[in-house]
Amino acid sequence: MFPVLRSCFTPVIRAPLLVRTFTYSAPVFRTNTSTRTKENVHDLETFFKLIGRNCNEHLDSFEGNLDKFLATSSKDMKEMGIDVSTRKYMLRWKHKFVNDLEPLREHKRGKKKNGGERKARTVIAKRKALERLEAKERHASDELEAERKGERTF
């Protein structure tokens, strides 16, 4: 292009892109200061009470024995008649308890907003349409009432 200009520029030595390193603590390295740990829970009733979600209902299935609960598989729990969501929840907490990953606490069930992600638009649209219909009916009844009182003459 411009040979004169090109020769006056010296090549710039570019350093390789520096990689940003982030420090974060993995769950393995965190110290567990809670009293709801593996060392402090010795019976199944306490375990179920701490994890919540009405797991106490299934205390009789395991005869109140924590060791029996820890030895029970998902298939055995299914045969005992424990429903799927509760069974998954109990198995997840069993894994966390055995490996001492997290202090015992209740994970609340999620609540859907506006009927869930897929149905949100239609639920909101129906709600707004219903509100408009109610407002229209309210206006019509107010007009009839005003006409009966003689406030409106048509």
UniProtKB/TrEMBL annotation:
It comes from the Eukaryota. Pfam families: SAM_Ribosomal_mS41. Residues 104-154 are annotated as: Disordered. SMART domains: IGR. The keyword Mitochondrion applies. Keywords: Mitochondrion. One of its GO terms (cellular component) is mitochondrion. It is found in: Mitochondrion. This is Small ribosomal subunit protein mS41. It comes from Meyerozyma guilliermondii (strain ATCC 6260 / CBS 566 / DSM 6381 / JCM 1539 / NBRC 10279 / NRRL Y-324).
